[in-house]
Each structure stands twice: as structure tokens, then as C-alpha cells.
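Notes from hallway chat w/ T.B., transcribed later so I don't forget. T.B. wanted the structure written out for a chain they're using in a teaching module, and asked if we could keep both sequence and C-alpha cells in one place. Agreed to drop them here.
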Amino acid sequence: MSLFDTVSQQVSSSSSMFGALGDSLINSAISQFIPSEANQQLDAVARIGGDVVNGDYLGAGRHLLNTGVLDGVLGDLSGMAKQALFWATPTPMFGGLSPAEAKALHRQSTGVAFARKNRFVIEVGSFLYGDVSERFNLMTSELSYSPSTLSGEYKKAGAASVDSVQSSEPVELSLTAYDDANGTLKNWFNDHAKAVAATDGTLGLPFFYAIRIKVVHSFIESTFGAYEDLGLFRPQNMELSLSRREDAMQELTMTFKQLDTFMRP
């Protein structure tokens, strides 16, 4: 509210006979004696006083610099001070944050090396075939599993419930891969499946059919310090589909089940 409005409201409220004509005459009379520059300075002083009363000292400093009163005192430093106030002043453009705080958050977000789901290394080896990591890394397109699964139930204790953990469930790993024309991966899986359960009905020893699978996350080669999961698995099932309606590469999904959870490679 300017000085013109303050004086006009006080006069009009004290004497109702002026009305709209009285307001107009008063504004005209004041304008003749007080230049517009002085009125702007008085408005700025009023804003500064309001900021100080409200405890907004940063806003008071910003309004003081905008008046230009300190330009002659600070010289070239006046522009630097205005820029510093701009960086420190919260603004709705950045969700109530100051430009300096928004810039710091941006630096934090861009400085994080996020894990990429398309970057992983899989190492596969067994007694029957030895190390076939190169083939699997070349052919694998998707990989999914749950590294840890804990099962349990809650016991009632009066009106409360008590968590009772019972076991750590074995890991189930699903791997989707392409295969070559000779069926290398299909033969590999079937040979391990026969080592688990032979056609004559006998069961084999884990030493012969156990598959060592290691998954390294976020890198394209084994790297020290990277997150990795390692376990011994057996073949569980293999799914594939053929279709003469499309000319596409064949995909097969192989599922592996972890051996005894207390066994480690």
C-alpha cells in the first residue's frame, strides 16, 4: 500500500462528505507536492520495515538493494550483492527452494552412478560341461531372481502378534536366452536334467549335476567391490515356443532351483 492510499483512506474514513470526489482531490494535491520517485522510496521503506517486523531479514536486504540506495556506497559490489541474494532467496520456481539449494540437489543427483539393469555378468560352470560363462553371457537376454526370501508366521501373544521366522527359502532363478542352430543351450540343460533324474528312474549325486551360477550387477565384467550373488543350483524346467507365423530368433527360458541352502560353492 502506497503513501497516497494510506492518506486517502484515513481522510475518507474520518469525513464521509468527501466521498469519491474527496479522494480524487486529496490524491491530486499530494501528487503535486510529493514526486513519484519519493513515493516509490517510501513504499520501499515500508516494505523493508514490514520484512524486519516479520523477521524476514533476507527479504529486507533484498528490498534495500533494489532501492539503489547502496549503489553509491557499494559501487561494483552492489551487483554482486544482488546476485548473492538471488541465489539465497527461496522461489516458487524451484518448489520453495533457493537457486543455490536447487543447484546443490541437482549436483547430488547427477553425481550418483545409478545401477543399470542391462549391465550384468553371469558366470556358469559345472562338473559336466566346465565353464560356459562366455556362451551364457553372449546368449542371455533377461535374468530374474530373488536373492533372499524368508518365510514365517505370526504367533498370537494376547492382543499382540509376534513374528516367528521359520526358514530361509531356496532361491529360484529364471534365465531367458537365445540359442544357436545346433541347440547348444538346450543340450546343456537336458544333460544336466538327466544327471538329476535318469531315464531309468535313478537319482544322481549333486556333485555331478550341481551348477555354479554367479551374477555380478552393474558391470560388464567381474569387478572387485561390485554387488554379486553366488550359489549352487540344479535344473528345474525349460520352456520354449516355436511358431511358423514369425521369423524371429528362438528364446528359451531356463529355471534353476538352489540346492540345500546351507551348501556354498
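Follow-up for T.B.: Strands lie at 120-126, 130-131, 140-145, 150-157, 160-168, 172-178, 211-217, 228-240, 251-258. Might be a good example for the class.
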